[in-house]
């Protein structure tokens, strides 16, 4: 019989029998157990063993709780509109939208809509070097670009396009350095959203002046955020995402008309292909 069992049996004997020898035996047994605990626990008080036992089990309990919580979180995230989808939606709203990247995805659709109108193309907007490079890869297409902002951080390829005269750095709030009808098609993206109506009244008609077949305007959708805080110094002001009704009123006020024929071809090509516009696309007639 071990010590702990002896204590219990002696305790029961003392309670029911009440004899002195049993009581003495109980006291002696308790002293032995107590002295053993004190030696093992380094001289702590009698309940230290119980406390240490609890402390030793607490890390295991914490690990179990963490694992259970992780399983519940993962299950909730993948069971429907969970946290990961919410994060994705937030990043979509607050992310950096680029209609210039949209232009590059829409080149094949634009060719179906404008045909020979893609023979001489001018792109106006930030990151125009990437658009010009994409257009130059197309058969029977010449391309030029106007970069409205500084290109100090541009790569060597972009600087090469500038040195060849294919890309110019120019403030589009002022008249463009081209003659009327210099290009068959003018495409503008990520530039007009940063201009106030005061400058839009001059810039958009100027784009239509240098085009012979039309102007394609890519504009952001309301609710999109374009410029990050670090880019405000480059663009000068936050982007203003205007609705389609606002743009249509603006076109009427500035005597600009919709270019209906290529606009319908563009919509038909979009409906049949995989490209789905993430920006507003307007097709305008040139000024003659």
From TrEMBL:
Keywords: Membrane, Transmembrane, Transmembrane helix. Coiled coil: none annotated. GO terms for molecular function: methyltransferase activity. It comes from the Eukaryota. The chain crosses the membrane at residues 60-78. GO terms for biological process: pectin metabolic process. InterPro entries: CGR2/3, SAM-dependent_MTases_sf. PANTHER family: PECTIN METHYLESTERASE CGR2-RELATED, S-ADENOSYL-L-METHIONINE-DEPENDENT METHYLTRANSFERASE-RELATED. This is Methyltransferase type 11 domain-containing protein. The lineage of its organism: Eukaryota, Viridiplantae, Streptophyta, Embryophyta, Tracheophyta.
